[in-house]
Amino acid sequence: MKKILIFGGNRLVGKSLSKILLDRGYEVDVFNRSGTSADVNISAIQGDRNNVEDIDKIDFKKYDCVVDMCLFFISQFDLIYKLMSKYTNYIFVSSGAADHRYIEYYGEYGKEKLKIEEFLSDHADLNYQIVRPSYIVGENDHRARLDYYIDGVKNRKQIKIDGDGTNEINMVFVQDVVKVLEKLVDKDELDNDTLTVCGNDSFSLLDLIKNVNEKYYQKKLNLVFNSEDAILPKNTFVFDNTHTCIKLDVTFTDFYKAFDEYLQTT
Q1: Distances (CA, A) of 75 to 51, 83, 85, 103
Q2: Torsion of Cα atoms, 165 then 12 then 88 then 27, to 10°
């Protein structure tokens, strides 16, 4: 039985992944500040990953795979990487914000993610995989990106948009991110590659809002353009999942099909 450690594991992707791995017979532990997990059979280690004493609570040698959902600073990685065996699979959930085409729009967040990626690539003794998702949406999304637009359309609230809304973006549903991570956890050895995890199709934010409205609500839209309070920046954020699909033999859910299913849960 493989033993898996998930940094995070109590919301969105980590929460779903931990439950699926448990159901499949894996032994799953999570490490997070709240000390909570998605199931009573998932052991939770409470701690702050910025704290050496808390990191010392983890016996890294017992784990076959570490999935890191909440690594944001290279200083955090410094505390753990020497503790992991070179035989332990390490999956770093980075971000599309680390892509050189878009990194300047995301400030230190994207730059720190890239620093960690570069550190991994410079240390061949680590057995790792880098996963770069686009905007993750779906059930239990604490950022409520998709919910913001659904609520705005449905209830005729102001929808604040940075720019004119014509920039193309990409969203990926949480179940597809989990699907990719599940495939990687199953592997006996990782190959130090970077995998893009994104929806099959990109679209402009304005088209998304209009399509949702026309298909589901038929309300008068209340759009505010060039808003500094918009939840998404006005830059293009487009990716291609072809390499990931071929390498892992996975398919990604059609966005509007997944959207239909998501609406039934909200």
Answers
A1: 11, 14, 19, 20
A2: -160
